[in-house]
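Thread: quick sanity check before group meeting

JM: Hey all, I'm pulling together slides for Thursday and realized we never actually wrote out the predicted structure for the chain we discussed last week. Dropping the sequence here so it's in one place. If anyone has concerns about the input, flag it before I start.
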Amino acid sequence: MKIHMPVSAKKGSVVVKGENLTQPDIPGTWGAMEALYDSVELHPVWQQPKLHEYCQSKGIHLIGYSPLGSQAGENVRKKVLDNPVVKKAAEELGKALAQVALRGLQMGHSVLPKSIGEARMKENLDVLSWSIPEELLPKFSQIEQEKLVRVEGYVRNTYGVYRTIEELWDGEV
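JM (edit): ok, ran it. Output follows.
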């Protein structure tokens, strides 16, 4: 089971259409999920330390989809890869920006990078053969945090389950 955000839709519908949204069973879904894992937006620009801490306390293995921020488009991806902390670490370590961004999440959870390019796939696999030195890791926690995957399409002020962004999220927008 994977939960990207707290929405559910009528069977067979396209989730991003507000008229197809239904009231999700958050307690039931959360109960089933506790024994499994969760997949959420997770990258150096949106590290979600509170969620990571909570999942650790409940024995939930956190998995980050879109670890380079690329699900939301190229401009968003640049916010991750053009980050000064990521750039400086890549330069110091002699690694690609994407490798450092993926490895910068070496906090006990997994990431799901994806690529169709052979060279990029090899780079992605290579992140398992090295780590970011302990003295550089604190710099990653200084990166200004910003949620890059937007959810406005799930909110409709005239119909649907969520009328505002605040109803959709729990304050961690």
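AS: nice. The chain has a mean pLDDT of 78. Strands lie at 8-9, 21-22, 37-41, 61-65, 110-112.
JM: adding both to the slides.
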